[in-house]
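During the no-cost extension, the postdoctoral fellow (Dr. R.K.) reprocessed legacy sequence entries with the updated structure-token encoder. One reprocessed record is reproduced below for audit purposes.
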Amino acid sequence: MSEEMPQAMPQIKTSQDVSRIRDIIFGPQIRDYEQRFQTLVRDLERLQQEVDNASEQLSDQDSILDKKIQALRREMRQSNDDLRSELRETAQKLTFDKVDRITMGELFIQLGTNLKTGGSLTELLKNLAEIDKPE
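Re-encoded structure tokens follow.
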């Protein structure tokens, strides 16, 4: 048993020596690479945060624009409905308020007669009022 112990010791000592030699030879380069790697990892995390923030801002702006577009669509529909309603009312008013041909003909006959006879404006208006009275 005592023979096994001395053999284990040199093996541990040898691996420590190898690590120490590796550290002496490659230590500065490895530390430099580790430092660069850590810097890259920090930069990558910072960039990821910026991307996440930008994505969140875009999402917020997208929802705000969607709400504005919906509001504009409602406003356009309401304006369209209002204009159509006003157009219908105007068309109906024109249909009911227009002068029929018979009344217009009588008006021109009275006007012509008044011009021929040299009548006054009061008489013309009086005659026109008589034409407008329903029979």
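Residues 99-135 form one domain. Helices lie at 4-97, 101-117, 121-132. The remaining legacy entries will be reprocessed before the final report is submitted.
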